[in-house]
């Protein structure tokens, strides 16, 4: 079961992740979008960190997410006549009456699928929605063994202004579960309002993967061909890699 983002986290998502994430993957995914002539689907579209720019570039792009709070933020960013492109659906059972040349699931969407059955169901559903020679590209972080064993102690990992003179701070801690191969990520938000300090908490379980596990997972799915890169520059996996970039191909039959 994928956990939905609560309203407070959706509200501040852009403030936090435009600073923390854009420099990592924004250029990579937008290059993919630019090079795709047909329909594109972004799974886990969220507040539109990537989607909005792709839409304004003229891409024939659609987006889905399970979080109503996140989509409510996105709807306010795009023209009303583009709202039909967004829907609240799940990667495991989403449905369209047309197919895509490119489907992307950026920023660790696959890590929200905790069970093997969910992962295979998601991959096969994506496969069914691709045209021949279509691509499905998703990412996951490469586990840091020290953090997997010991977790991350409570710390502030973000501080910034979300409005002039009003700050938002995020604190995070992680607790690993080695047997079930998950990390429980606990977030604490504190933000300033005109009437005082507000706060909220959220706990998110994430599934971490190793290289050969990802390979076996894709090989169990309907995809005939794949490769795994080590960063968003297109380099092969190496000892310096921090991310798995998994590129799955549907062969034209």
Give keywords.
36% strand, N-terminal domain of TfIIb, Rossmann fold, 253 residues, alpha/beta, 7-stranded mixed beta sheet, 11 strands
What does this structure look like?
Helix content is about 30%, strand content about 35%. It is α/β, with parallel strands linked by helices and about 250 residues long. It folds into two domains: about 5-140 and about 210-250, Vaccinia Virus protein VP39 (Rossmann fold, 3-Layer(aba) Sandwich); about 145-205, N-terminal domain of TfIIb. The model has no long low-confidence stretch (mean pLDDT about 95).
Strand content: 35-45%
Care to count the β-strands? Answer: 11
Top-tier CATH class of the largest domain: Alpha Beta
Write down the overall mean pLDDT.
Answer: 95
The CATH architecture classification of the largest domain is 3-Layer(aba) Sandwich
SSE series: HHEHEHEEHEHEEEEHEE
**What percent of the residues sit in helical stretches (DSSP H or I)?**
25-40%
Tell me the CATH topology of the largest domain: Rossmann fold
Number of domains: 2
Overall, the morphology is globular
Concise structural overview:
The chain is an alpha/beta fold and 253 residues long.
């Amino acid at each position: 079961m994928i956990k939905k983002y609560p309203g407070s986290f959706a509200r501040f998502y852009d403030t936090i992740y435009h600073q923390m994430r854009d420099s990592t993957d924004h250029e990579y995914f937008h290059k993919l979008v630019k090079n795709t002539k047909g329909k594109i689907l972004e799974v886990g579209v969220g507040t539109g960190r990537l989607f909005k720019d792709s839409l304004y570039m003229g891409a024939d792009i659609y987006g889905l997410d399970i979080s109503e709070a996140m989509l409510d933020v996105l709807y306010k960013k795009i023209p009303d006549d583009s709202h039909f492109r967004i829907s609240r659906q799940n990667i495991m059972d989403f449905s369209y009456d047309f197919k895509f040349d490119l489907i992307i699931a950026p920023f660790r969407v696959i890590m929200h699928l905790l069970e093997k059955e969910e992962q295979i169901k998601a991959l096969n559903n994506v496969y069914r929605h691709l045209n021949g020679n279509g691509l499905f590209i998703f990412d996951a972080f490469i586990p840091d063994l020290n953090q997997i064993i010991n977790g991350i102690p409570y710390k502030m990992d973000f501080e910034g202004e979300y409005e002039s003179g009003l700050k938002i701070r995020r604190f995070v801690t992680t607790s690993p579960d080695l047997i079930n191969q998950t990390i429980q990520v606990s977030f604490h938000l504190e933000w300033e309002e005109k009437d005082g300090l507000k706060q909220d908490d959220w706990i998110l379980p994430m599934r971490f993967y190793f290289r050969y596990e990802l390979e076996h997972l894709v090989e169990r799915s309907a995809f005939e061909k794949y490769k795994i890169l080590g960063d968003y520059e297109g380099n092969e996996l190496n000892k310096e890699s921090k991310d798995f970039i998994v590129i799955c191909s549907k062969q034209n039959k």
